[in-house]
TrEMBL record:
<feature type="domain" description="Inner membrane protein YgaP-like transmembrane">
    <location>
        <begin position="17"/>
        <end position="69"/>
    </location>
</feature>
<protein>
    <submittedName>
        <fullName>SRPBCC family protein</fullName>
    </submittedName>
</protein>
<dbReference type="InterPro" id="IPR021309">
    <property type="entry name" value="YgaP-like_TM"/>
</dbReference>
<comment type="similarity">
    <text>Belongs to the ribosome association toxin RatA family.</text>
</comment>
<dbReference type="Pfam" id="PF11127">
    <property type="entry name" value="YgaP-like_TM"/>
</dbReference>
<dbReference type="InterPro" id="IPR005031">
    <property type="entry name" value="COQ10_START"/>
</dbReference>
<dbReference type="InterPro" id="IPR023393">
    <property type="entry name" value="START-like_dom_sf"/>
</dbReference>
<dbReference type="Pfam" id="PF03364">
    <property type="entry name" value="Polyketide_cyc"/>
</dbReference>
<dbReference type="InterPro" id="IPR047137">
    <property type="entry name" value="ORF3"/>
</dbReference>
<feature type="domain" description="Coenzyme Q-binding protein COQ10 START">
    <location>
        <begin position="98"/>
        <end position="222"/>
    </location>
</feature>
Length: 252
């Protein structure tokens, strides 16, 4: 079999194709037509059209579309949705190393009233009993939504699992694992979270466009958790500005 070193090297770098032949052909045809129109039109509108046409040609040539990627569920997400009986699922796995022992990190998580200290969009979590809690969350549009969750697994200092109750408007499941970090560096906290996006995959895309993707949220929340447990506080924008002002040399 003839080898193509350049092509083989790029296969590990370029994103995988997610468009069929018919979609690529349609995109290429539209791209050529848009470029021809841009040449005749000229000016600012023609320049913008040329950019759009070039993007469509690139889409056709590569067979990859980032919008399709954003709105398409991964195989693991499809399995989660099927198992949970959801229309679709958005899932993320994130981890962070915290310079505190697993016992301390576990105790912090187990006290649900402390969760809003690092979960940015969570306004309040109230314990109902040993396994059930009530959540109040602020959305990116300023509204609040509420639901009850139940702990499904509790292995002290190792793992906590939860899910929303069956009748909840927001359907979500997740696990938090606590593992000793190598080299006595504290605890590796691993979060695995999945939820059913409102309005299905369209809601998933809208969330990403608003910067509210579960992957980004999980990353930011775990970074805040690390700051809370290691320093006792989460720097606010005002605090960061004050630190920057204090670090500036005094004017002569």
């Amino acid at each position: 079999m003839q080898r193509h070193p350049a092509r083989d090297a790029l296969q590990g770098v370029l994103p995988a194709r997610n468009l069929g032949d018919a979609e690529r052909m349609a995109s290429g045809t539209a791209g050529v037509a848009t470029l021809l129109w841009a040449v005749r039109r000229g000016g600012v509108s023609g320049g913008l059209a040329a950019l759009a046409g070039t993007a469509m040609l690139a889409r056709a040539a590569s067979g990859y579309c980032p919008v399709t990627e954003a709105t398409s569920a991964k195989p693991a997400e499809r399995r989660i949705a099927q198992k949970q009986g959801w229309r679709s699922a958005a899932a993320v796995v994130r981890s962070v190393t915290i310079a505190r022992p697993p016992e301390e990190v576990y105790r912090f998580f187990r006290d649900v009233a402390k969760l809003p200290r690092f979960l940015q969009h969570v306004q309040q979590v109230t314990a109902i009993d040993e396994t059930r809690s009530h959540w109040v969350v602020r959305t990116s549009l300023g509204h609040t939504i509420e639901w009850d969750a139940i702990i499904t697994e509790d292995r002290p200092n190792e793992r906590i699992g939860w899910r929303s109750v069956p009748e909840a408007d927001i359907r979500t499941i997740g696990w938090i694992e606590f593992r000793p970090a190598p080299g006595d560096r504290g605890t590796e906290v691993r979060a695995s979270i999945a939820y059913e996006p409102p309005a299905g995959q369209l809601g998933r895309l809208v969330a990403q466009l608003w910067g509210e993707s579960p992957s980004r949220q999980a990353y930011d929340d775990l970074r805040r958790l690390k700051q809370v447990l290691e320093t006792g506080e989460v720097p606010t924008p005002a605090m960061r500005r004050a630190d920057a002002d204090a670090a500036m040399p005094a004017a002569a």
